[in-house]
Each structure stands twice: as C-alpha cells, then as structure tokens.
Amino acid sequence: MQPDWAQALGFLAAALTTFAFIPQVVYCWRTRDTQSISLGMYACFCLGVLLWLIYGLLVQQWPVVVANAVTLLLASSILYLKLNQKP
Predict the structure, then answer these.
(1) Spatial distance between the Cα atoms of 29 and 12, rounded to a whole number of angstroms
(2) Cα dihedral: 45, 47, 52, 54 (round 10)
(3) Could you give the CA distance from residue 14 to residue 68 in angstroms, rounded to a whole number?
(4) With the CA atoms of 37, 43, 49 and 52 taken in that order, what torsion angle do they form, in degrees rounded to the nearest 10?
(5) What 8-state DSSP symbol labels residue 21?
(6) pTM for the whole thing?
C-alpha cells in the first residue's frame, strides 16, 4: 500500500502552523500580558478557525479537523486572557 502523501503533507503543514501558536500561548499565560494583542484580530481568527473546523468535519478532511481543533484551543486561550485582562 502506497502512503497518501497529500494527507501526510497536510498533517505536516497543520502541525507546523498550529504549533506556531504555542510560544505565544506560553508567553501570555506566564506573563498575563496581552496588551499588545489585537482583540478584534483574535476574535475574528477564532471564529474563522471554528468555521474551518466545521468545514473539515463536513468534508471529513482530518488534517483540517485536527489542526483547527488544536489551533482553536490555543487561540481561544489567548482570547480568554485578552478578554479577562485587568486594565
């Protein structure tokens, strides 16, 4: 059986773009500093990622589903901190 290179490439791309959020999440949770992060950008981004996740589920594209589920978790944690930041 020949490997599905397109799906493997999709998972690799998903892993790289998803895990790129980890340093930002770690920084924000450690310092609680989200002052320089745009609330509008993260709100739109989280909504877009949620829609990609739904799309991935509908078309059963697992690299899209996995990447967007993890990205939504990471990005929404930053959004949560931003919304709960003390002035």
Answers:
(1) 26
(2) 160
(3) 8
(4) -150
(5) T
(6) 0.83
Whole-angstrom distance, CA of residue 42 vs CA of residue 53: 16
For every residue of 27-86, DSSP letters joined together read HHHHH---TTS-HHHHHHHHHHHHHHHHHHHHHT-HHHHHHHHHHHHHHHHHHHHHHT--
CA–CA gap between residue 36 and residue 64 (Å, rounded): 29
pLDDT value for 8: 86
Over its length of 87 residues, how does the chain's per-residue pLDDT go in tens digits? 456 888 888 889 888 988 998 999 999 999 999 999 999 999 999 999 999 999 999 999 888 999 999 999 999 999 999 999 876
> Residue 64 — left, alpha, or beta (φ > 0 → left; ψ -120 to 50 → alpha)?
alpha
Q: Are 78 and 34 in contact (CB under 8 A)?
A: yes
